[in-house]
Design goal:
Blueprint (H helix, E strand, L loop, with lengths): L10 H12 L4 E3 L5 E4 L9 E8 L16 E7 L5 H10 L6 E6 L2 H16 L4 E6 L20 H14 L3 H13 L1 E7 L19 E4 L10 E4 L3 H16 L6 E8 L5 H17 L3 E8 L9 E9 L1 H8 L2 E2 L4 E2 L3
Parallel strand pairs: 3-4, 3-5, 5-6, 10-11
Antiparallel strand pairs: 1-2, 2-4, 7-8, 7-12, 8-9, 10-12, 13-14
Helix pairs in contact: 2-3, 4-5, 6-7
């Protein structure tokens, strides 16, 4: 395993030190070494936005802290939930007197630790409400949406809720728009290779050479099918088939699209994949209002990509267009 690391057990901790050193204008450390906040603090009276999750998915989650997005983030070990203590500290770092919205993905550890942290915050007199992202359409049937994982669609949730919070929306409104965004979002990934947690020293799952796994999770959770690697246009069609059927998208609807690499995919290939996605969505009569292509939600050095599609109404379209600035996402505004 050839890696740019020191102690395999300290990779997440040391990476956090490095990211704060690299982006002092965007991120700031807190008293909790696993919690970062936005360098520029908003004025009092704003709803705070918090997210969190395991390390190894960079730029998620810390890469989406900044104006127009999240205000603080709790960072766990690689592929492991932040502790309840860290989520609690993130809530306090994002407390501007109007309550806190915690927007995170549907994983057992995160669910448990967020619930514990919300109780701790309540003892402080701080109101925290949460929205759990469950956009991975391949991870469970639509009738069991509460069992689905949260993946790259979280970016759409953070963008919408962060924009409304910056506009002055109250906690009820911010929670409602975050829920609307994720309810109208579907994602599917295709994995082409495994990834290795440094402390483990070996891949935590396998994908045979020449094969690909459709619907694979960001931690190597099993997908819906394994098959020989197909051309990019066929990969795009496979992923869109799952997403569009799940969202029941019809002609003349507006959508936002996000194509994310899983860590080891050349950006050139992501643009190639997006070209097919763009063509296929237009052929179905959909209007693409916002496009995001790059590495947004990765899995260490996994080769592959995910596609996310969000149905937009007028409010979500407007919020997607608002300015935002972070390590992982910058929108100039229109």
């Amino acid at each position: 395993m050839n890696r740019i690391i020191n102690d395999p057990e300290q990779v997440a901790e040391e990476a956090l030190l490095g990211v704060v050193a690299a982006y002092p204008d965007i991120l700031a450390a807190t008293d909790n070494p696993r919690v970062l906040r936005a360098a520029r603090q908003p004025k009092q009276g704003k709803v705070g936005i918090v997210t969190g999750g395991g390390s190894g998915h960079e730029p998620a989650f810390l890469g989406f802290v900044g104006p127009g997005l999240c205000d603080a983030v709790a960072c766990g070990e690689i592929f492991a939930s932040p502790t309840a203590k860290s989520f609690h500290a993130a809530f306090k770092a994002a407390d501007f007197g109007a309550g806190v919205a915690c927007l995170y993905g549907n994983y057992a550890g995160d669910n448990m630790n967020v619930k514990m942290a919300v109780k701790l915050a309540a003892k402080d007199g701080l109101t925290v409400r949460s929205v759990v992202a469950n956009d991975d359409v391949a991870s469970a049937p639509k009738a069991e949406r509460d069992k689905r994982r949260g993946v790259a669609g979280e970016v759409m949730m953070w963008k919408s809720a962060g924009g409304l919070a910056d506009e002055g929306g109250d906690l009820d409104q911010v929670i409602a728009v975050a829920q609307k965004a994720i309810d109208n979002t579907g994602s599917v990934g295709i994995g082409l290779s495994a990834c290795t947690i440094p402390a483990a020293g070996k891949p935590n799952f396998t994908i045979a050479p020449g094969m690909m796994e459709v619907g694979i999770g960001h931690h190597g959770e099993p997908g819906v099918s394994v098959m020989p690697v197909k051309p990019a246009r066929d990969m795009a069609a496979l992923m869109l088939e799952h997403i569009l059927a799940d969202l029941s998208l019809g002609r003349d609807e507006d959508v936002a699209v996000l194509v994310s690499g899983l860590g080891a995919t050349p950006v050139m290939e992501l643009y190639l994949l997006y070209g097919h996605v763009d063509e296929m969505l237009r052929d179905r009569g959909l209007r693409i209002r916002h496009r995001f292509v790059g590495n947004y939600f990765t899995s260490l050095e996994m080769m592959g990509a995910s596609i996310t599609v969000t149905r937009l109404d007028g409010e979500l379209d407007r919020l997607m267009a608002l300015p935002a600035h972070s390590i992982g996402l910058t929108v100039l505004g229109s």
